[in-house]
Amino acid sequence: MPATGQSHIRIARPSRDLVAAEHFWVSGLGLSVLFRAESEGGPDEHDLLMVGWPDASWHLELVQDAAVEPRPTEEDLLVVYLDEQVPQAVLSRLEAHGGKRVRSRNPYWDAWGATIQDPDGYRLVLSTRGWTNS
């Protein structure tokens, strides 16, 4: 079956600390834990945490592997389009759960939302805009 607009997307990233990452993404943003696997210490094994909204067509896979270090840039963004103002309560909760509010390298995101750095240094943008493909 070919990929379509209905195909599920997995966004995979390395993480230094899955406990801190879960704290941010689940307790902070409100995603759910979809799957978890812990390594038994064998070669080529790693700890894994998948988070997302159960009804979404995407999820975030976080992998903790001593051989792979996160290397985020200022342009590694996960953008969530809210189509409304970013609730201050959500920003406060993300900061209380390990996030750090940062200015975006691209001023567009500061004008149209808020950028929060997760515990691994990757950036989440909560955009006040709605998504349109036109």
Automatic annotation (TrEMBL):
Alphabetical list of InterPro entries matching this protein: Glyas_Bleomycin-R_OHBP_Dase, VOC_core, YycE-like_C, YycE-like_N
Upper lineage is: Bacteria, Bacillati, Actinomycetota, Actinomycetes, Kitasatosporales
Annotated transmembrane regions: none
Output this protein's name: VOC family protein
- Pfam families membership: YycE-like_C, YycE-like_N
VOC domain: from which residue to which, for each copy? 5-129
